[in-house]
């Protein structure tokens, strides 16, 4: 299976993206259509759709929308794109509550207190029209070849309890927010469970990975991570 990766970097006025290098959506062209990994913020919807269509991704040939985790800067356009392009949404069950109820704090084991959640609700909630239930529950080791995508799902908790990565047969890893590359490759500041994060990093050590595509920042090699 041939695969071509196009990273769509979306910047926004939201403070959520300040200092984050924007948020990345990764569009993969396969022999049978397209796969989209993460969907950006609602505010950047027009930009995202223009980028998708300019790449040749149109209603009918988007095979699957994969969400790495439930934060709204990765899920903000998923429901809209499902309706417009007719593609199912795949997500780990650990993130299902976050997207169904629109609360990105619900996919954390260590949730903030009530007062902090009230403050966060003004900036971290999906609007009702953008909330959704995933069509497909994905988990560690799931094969995505049925969608024309020569890749598998990796369960990589740490940033959130249901975070996943996508590893292609050629060694490309889409890691969500497990790792960022703003100034250099590094874990995110927002870590839900440090033990889970360490276990996820250990899992990566045993895999053949060439290039890592983070949710924020530029792609980098595994060697760059080891030497950073």
Question: Number of DSSP strands?
Answer: 13
What count of structural domains? 1
Given helix and strand content, the structural type is alpha/beta
Order of helices and strands: EEEHEHHEHHEEEEEEHEEH
Question: Could you name the CATH class?
Answer: Alpha Beta
Notes on the structure:
About 5% of the residues have low confidence. The chain is globular, with a radius of gyration of 16 Å. The strands form three sheets. It has a six-stranded mixed sheet. By secondary structure, the chain is of the alpha/beta class. The chain contains seven helices and 13 strands. The chain has one domain: Metallo-beta-lactamase, Chain A (4-Layer Sandwich), CATH 3.60.15. The longest helix has 12 residues. 44% of the residues are buried. It starts with a strand and ends with a helix.
Summarize the structure.
With 228 residues, the protein is of the alpha/beta class. It is built from 7 helices and 13 strands.
Features:
6-stranded mixed sheet, 7 helices, 5-stranded mixed sheet, Metallo-beta-lactamase, Chain A, globular, 228 residues, alpha/beta
What is the topology?
Blueprint: E1 4-10, E2 23-30, E3 33-37, H1 45-54, E4 62-66, H2 72-75, H3 78-85, E5 89-91, H4 96-101, H5 114-120, E6 136-137, E7 151-155, E8 164-168, E9 172-176, E10 180-181, E11 185-186, H6 194-205, E12 211-214, E13 220-221, H7 222-226
Parallel strand pairs: 3-4, 4-5, 5-6, 9-12
Antiparallel strand pairs: 1-2, 2-3, 7-8, 8-9, 10-11, 12-13
